[in-house]
Specification:
Elements (H helix, E strand, L loop, with lengths): L11 E5 L11 E4 L11 E5 L4 H9 L4 E4 L1 H5 L2 H10 L4 E9 L4 E4 L8 E4 L6 E4 L5 E5 H10 L5 E6 L6 H11 L3 E5 L6 H6 L5 E5 L5 H9 L13
Parallel strand pairs: 1-2, 1-12, 2-3, 3-4, 4-5, 5-10, 10-11
Antiparallel strand pairs: 5-8, 6-7, 8-9
């Protein structure tokens, strides 16, 4: 039996599903099937390559929101155009990402007496991916912050091969852009409760069959509790 999260939990769980099959009380997410007559009523629809014309078609078909993908990454002016045309509440971004690879190079310029090897990416970062999985070298967290600054209200990060080493990136980004950030996983990424507890995630999208009462209670319990503040007069 599916159930909503307890009212006290500050956590939202969306479901990857098709219209009519989504668990009740959970936002519905789906990928654009690119058909001429899309069935997407009430859904947040991910367009991996779609244009603004396609976004118009999806919204006219009843989509709650369209999430622009590769098209917006390659031309960020389209993000502002989409917001101006459809409204901020109907536009989001789809951001597939993976850990940026670290390469090493010999630095011979810093000191004339010796050479040393230094990494090209000294701190953990995610890079955005194109629809075919090609890495772009663009820092996903930086891009998400910039898009939030432009007024994008929903940024869905799809993490590939994420590990517990990535929790710090997620925690920092969650703190900076708050409830604009949504998180989903392209593959097995450990326990989602870790991303809630240690990564600061508060909006997740999971497979529909994961939205069981037991699992939702477990995820809600991972949200850190905030101790009540007290005041003293005098």
């Amino acid at each position: 039996m599916n159930a909503a999260l307890p009212s006290a939990a500050t956590l939202t769980v969306g479901a990857w599903s098709a219209p009519g099959f989504a668990p009740p009380d959970h936002p519905l997410f789906m990928f654009d099937d690119e058909t001429g007559a899309p069935v997407c009523a009430g859904a947040h629809v991910v367009m991996e390559r779609g244009t603004l014309a396609r976004a118009d078609t999806l919204l006219a078909a009843g989509a709650r929101r369209v999430l622009l993908g590769e098209t917006a990454l390659l031309d960020t002016a389209l993000v502002q155009e989409a917001i101006a045309r459809f409204g901020a509440q109907r536009v989001g971004l789809w951001l597939p990402a993976r850990r940026m690879e670290v390469s090493w190079s010999i630095n011979r310029e810093s000191n004339a007496d010796f050479s040393f090897i230094m990494p090209t990416c000294p701190v953990p970062r995610w890079e955005l991916l194109l629809a075919d999985g090609t890495g772009t070298g663009t820092d996903a967290a930086w891009f998400a912050r910039e898009m939030a600054r432009l007024g994008v209200e929903q940024l869905l990060l799809s993490l590939h091969q994420a590990t517990e080493d990535d929790l710090g990136i997620c925690a920092e980004l969650s703190e900076e852009i708050g409830d604009r950030l949504w998180l989903t996983f392209a593959d097995a990424a450990g326990d989602p409760a870790e991303w809630i507890r240690d990564g600061g995630a508060r909006q997740l999208v999971v497979n529909a069959d994961t939205c069981t009462a037991v699992e939702l209670e477990r995820l809600a319990a991972a949200v850190p509790t905030v101790a009540p503040t007290t005041t003293q007069d005098g």
